[in-house]
């Protein structure tokens, strides 16, 4: 069962996505802000992080930078999720160290495909 950390401040988005992932066999840990997300990833070393870009304390791009700069967490794949669908947002996510990027509202089949690809890449 893949272990996922979902860093999302919007309660409705967080609950909806977590329920959908659990039904598909994922173990989901939830962080509602960037600081909690950093601590949770450092402690759990999950298989994958789903990272919202817009968070209340530390934005998702800065959290991504911090996790990728940390030798303990740098190999944990991070998939950035955002309602920002502009090309420059995608570029900023990858520049921060994201391994992939997807837009909201979430298309669960597309997201699962991206998640599986990152999990397979990490396993190999």
From TrEMBL:
The record's Gene Ontology biological-process terms are: phosphorelay signal transduction system
Task: Indicate the segments forming the Response regulatory domain, all copies.
Answer: 3-119
Name the keywords, alphabetized: Phosphoprotein
Q: Which of the residues bear the PTM 4-aspartylphosphate?
A: 52
Q: Which domain of life is it from?
A: Bacteria
Q: Which SMART domains match?
A: REC
Q: Which Pfam families match?
A: Response_reg
Q: What is this protein called?
A: Response regulator
> From which organism does this entry originate?
Polyangium jinanense
